[in-house]
Amino acid sequence: SPGPWRSCRGGTGPRPSPAKPRSGVAQAEPMSVWFQVPRMLLLLWLLPLAWPGEGSQRSEPMFTAVTSHVLPPDYDSNPTQLNYGMAVTDVDADGDLEIVVAGYNGPNLVLKYDRARQRLVNLARDERSSPYYALRDRQGNAIGVTACDIDGDGREEIYFLNTNNAFSGLATYTDKLFKLRAGRWEDLLSDEVNRAVASRFAGRSVACVDRAGSGRYAIYIANYANNNLGPHVLLEMDVAASDPARGIVVLTDVAAEAGVNKYTGPGQPGGLSLQGGEGVNGPNFLFHNQGDGSFVDVAAAPVSLDDPYQHGRGVALADFNRDGKVDIVYGNWNGPHRLYLQMSTSGRVRFRDIATPKFSMPSPVRTVLAADFDNNQELEVFFNNIAYRGSSANRLFRIIRREHLDPVIEELNPGEAMEPEGRGTGGVVTDFDGDGLLDLILSHGESMAQPLSVFRGTQGAGNNWLRVIPRTRFGAFARGARVVLFTRRSGAHLRIIDGGSGYLCEMEPVAHFGLGQDEASSLEVTWPDGRVVTRAVSSTETNSVLEIPYPQGAEGQLPPTLLECGQGFSQHENGRCVDRDECAEFPFVCPREKPLCSNTYSGYRCHSNRRCSRGFEPSEDGTACVAQVAFFGGYPSAGSQLWAWRPPSSLLSLGLGLCLHFYAL
Ligand SMILES: [Ca+2]
Ligand SMILES: [Ca+2]
Ligand SMILES: [Ca+2]
Ligand SMILES: [Ca+2]
């Protein structure tokens, strides 16, 4: 149980002895020196058991390794080599998802699940006659990979970020962009028409974005510049010059036109994540799409996400507190990891770091994943660390949503996915075996050749789930689309169809919802161009995969269907489920001692009419006066917490008061 303990924000203001969390095992440690010898011996036995985190030991192991029977190390499908990023896409267009692996000192792999043999097998075999043969590209020294439909033929192309041993600056071997053409996968960047744009720079990350909402994706390449060689590249198809039906795809770099021709200098390599026209980049750019396919960087001001002194690695997007806004989690290389909740203050977007000391603990992190691995509605965050100057275990946290309060961050036991000696370089989630529980695949490399590992979740087998796959107008995966699932009892759950996240990776193009014992009532998909589709979800569709095609016909043509929106939401006349304003609907909904009602997404809140002196205002629950805060994020001024006035005789509030930070919203 998380108990009343809640984290401090890292980095701002005084903290009450953050090194000693008040949890069961840890309590014994500081006390032990006062006890007699037998107790000391006991402690010596306990300590190794308690490492690396007492929190991780109190839960059942989440993952069990299935590598030895699903993907046993061998020459064909799981060679012991240096691997990096991975992407999940349907390479053979049969409706099942494959895992594409960037091989660095060996071939790239395309792993497909063979249901009959219950094994992952490599489609890109070492046979020249295979249509997948070119994807192997042994010479590429690939580190990153991403997939999206760049030419609008309904199938995803695959982009490999190659290094050819060039750490930064000019590489001698170009990246590759593979398309299925006349029955074989071929590199478009080798075509004569594309020689000029073929990236010859050493990249550090790659992702897909539908910047204009056309259904034709651009590929964002965050180059690793050297002496101002190699700004970021945004490759997309020149529609007027191309004829995809005849296999002619002319690529053009639109980075300057789109305003993203940034430089990522040595020392600041970055992960990359893109969501329907908004992007986040490790040295921390946050690109806001101005609506015309061009972007402005808003990371430093006004949203305070720039984190200028850290070296960003993996990043993931999710709505951790289920307020309908996309939050950002990312890892910094041997620096504090961040969990930024998005909030808005008088209509302006802000981010606020709620990482606990344990969560933010610096580590040699690569990929960061956010997913519901046990289908219990709460998202987990997985940190994939690379064993570097010694072992470095992977870590797993559960972000537990709370009504009107910040989520609780609980450390879980990753089980066999801990891999303390793993040279983790990448990781993806997908449900390759179709049992409704997400599977985890980890890649390794850099300093030691290690095969891939495959893990299955061990928990939540009885929980409900729903998987939603939106498609573009061309029938390809709608990367960057936003899917909101309305449920009968647990409000609205939000997912972004991944266009690139983690570190050098791209997750499955599926909105995977764990539902616990709840059921969905309706769903809403928003495509990158802003088109919205709503649809009822029946009980009989629980535990299934729903395909959502792009809407046919003009907007507003179809009359809205009657939807059940579930608790906290009601159907607007435009057909969409919207938050109910309980305060307006039921003027006397709040009790007498807390008469002030304020509407929140999916609920409402009651406040006391407590008066506060100038510069202060009542806290969210009305029990304290807190400073009105002007800034969020990394600035010291953000830590304007004060030790709250506490209601008498409430131990729970005392526990919270130790470490809670209040913010004016
Ligand atoms: Ca497939
Ligand atoms: Ca295509
Ligand atoms: Ca979960
Ligand atoms: Ca599974």
Automatic annotation (TrEMBL):
Domain (NOTCH1 EGF-like calcium-binding): give its ranges.
579-625
Q: Which domain of life is it from?
A: Eukaryota
Does Signal appear among the keywords?
yes
Q: Which Gene3D superfamilies match?
A: Laminin (2.10.25.10)
Among the record's GO biological process terms, what is one? regulation of synapse assembly
Region annotated Disordered, chain positions: 1-24
**Pfam families in alphabetical order:** EGF_CA (PF07645), FG-GAP_3 (PF13517), UnbV_ASPIC (PF07593)
UniProt KW Transferase keyword: no
Q: Which PANTHER family match?
A: CARTILAGE ACIDIC PROTEIN 1
What is the designated name of this protein? Cartilage acidic protein 1
